[in-house]
Write a structure and sequence with these properties.
This protein is an alpha+beta fold. Helix content is 32%, strand content 15%. The protein has a domain at 23-133 and 242-392: DD-peptidase/beta-lactamase superfamily (Beta-lactamase), CATH 3.40.710. Residues 1-10 have low confidence and may be disordered.
């Protein structure tokens, strides 16, 4: 095992307040995000027994580094304090140059990464395509006959990867009683309501209606898309998604600790947002996108190039997130700010980040317990901070 679970269990407050009904709300979330396996059923993503990829150190004090964000000047240390940071890691050329762990965090703490998990699913599909198990231009129903007649049936796998499927799902975390609530109850992330009927994640995906626009027309962020990718991966490999991550990703990259993946009542892993992993192991995931030795070759170079260069800027501009990252795109479950700087980003609600600058060979991980699911001003501040750190290390 990659570290004893008791490392985190010992951090449980005597009068623990986090439960299934409140675990994503402050102040309960600060403990809950570090101890998801005490709240939700999980499957293991197992590390390689006996050894791991050691990360050498080349420490620099980046705390005093100044950045400008939203008309303000502040330091990295101040930005971290203001953004409810639990863990922060900066790698340069595969070496740790800066690391921060908040009180109660340890090197073995498995923090939930929410939608950073989507980008991990993208990596899996890079490997599936490379192994000729999936052709991304084929329709979903080619690989999943169960999706025939659904809104997804004639969407290409690539459109699912790029969040450009014409499916009607309102990804609004603040709107109670709407699509996200139903989806979270099905995944087991919220308390079931009377009359739910025991709906499962895959039943929700299968029942989503078509949108008024065509597949491929615009960026349309829909978390169930990534759960569909997990389903597709299982269909073409015959392997449960957590076991697939173990075999293809976690063990080859030399993860130091096991990871956890929440599962629904049928044992289906929530590919869209469930990965719970240590700060350094998420850093190792980021190294795959840099192709830095000794992880070079695990992820196909063609996938990295495709992700950075083949995003549909027109579809992004027609989507609802265009103002968030002007001139950007979304490709293979990764945000790409533009097509020239070789930067790709994985983002999760409540302040989870994986930022990769290939040109400067910099990987940045941030784990957080921000009280709101989406805090736009904080997100803009984080982007400025990541850019400042990467420039300082160039």
């Amino acid at each position: 095992m990659g570290g004893s679970p008791t490392d985190d269990w010992a951090a449980s407050p005597p009068g623990r307040t986090a439960d299934l009904g409140n675990w994503r709300t402050a102040p309960h979330s600060r403990w809950a995000f570090r101890n998801v396996r005490q709240i939700l059923p999980t499957a293991a993503v197992s590390r390689r027994a006996g050894d791991h990829l050691a990360l050498e150190t080349a420490r620099q004090d980046l705390g005093p580094l100044r950045l400008k964000a939203e008309g303000r000047s502040l330091t990295v240390a101040e930005a971290l304090a203001e953004s409810d940071t639990d863990g922060f890691l900066v790698l340069k050329s595969g070496r740790v140059v800066y690391a921060f762990l908040a009180e109660g965090m340890t090197a073995s703490t498995r923090h939930v990464m929410f939608s950073v998990s989507k980008s991990v699913a993208g990596l899996v599909f890079g490997m599936l395509v490379d192994r000729r198990l999936i052709e991304p231009q084929r329709p979903v129903e080619h690989y999943l006959p169960a999706m025939s007649g659904s809104a997804y049936a004639d969407a290409s796998v690539q459109q699912v990867l790029d969040m450009s499927v014409g499916v009607d799902f309102r990804e609004n975390y603040a709107l109670r009683g709407d699509d996200v609530d139903r989806y979270r109850r099905a995944t087991g992330w919220d308390v079931a309501e009377s009359g739910d009927g025991g709906e499962t994640t895959r039943q929700v995906i299968r029942a989503l209606p078509r949108a008024e626009f065509a597949h491929g027309d615009r960026f349309n962020y829909v978390s169930p898309n990534t759960d569909l990718l997990g389903w597709l991966a299982e269909a073409v490999t015959g392997t449960p998604y957590p076991a697939l991550l173990t075999e293809w990703l976690w063990q080859p990259l030399g993860a130091e600790y096991d990871a956890d993946f929440p599962v629904d009542r049928r044992g289906v892993a929530r590919a869209a947002g469930g990965l719970c992993a240590t700060l350094a192991d998420i850093g190792r995931v980021g190294l795959l996108m840099t192709q830095t030795p000794p992880v070079e070759g695990i992820l196909p170079a063609a996938f990295v190039h495709d992700t950075l260069t083949r995003g549909d800027a027109a579809a992004w501009d027609k989507g609802t997130a265009a103002a968030y990252m002007p001139g950007g795109s979304y490709r293979n479950q990764w945000y790409v700010p533009n097509g020239k700087d070789e930067v790709c980003i994985a983002i999760g609600i409540h302040g989870q980040w994986l930022y990769v600058d290939r040109r400067r060979d910099v990987v940045i991980v941030k784990q957080s317990s921000q009280p709101e699911a989406v805090q736009m001003a904080t997100d803009f501040m984080m982007l400025r901070m990541f850019e400042a750190v990467a420039r300082a290390l160039a």
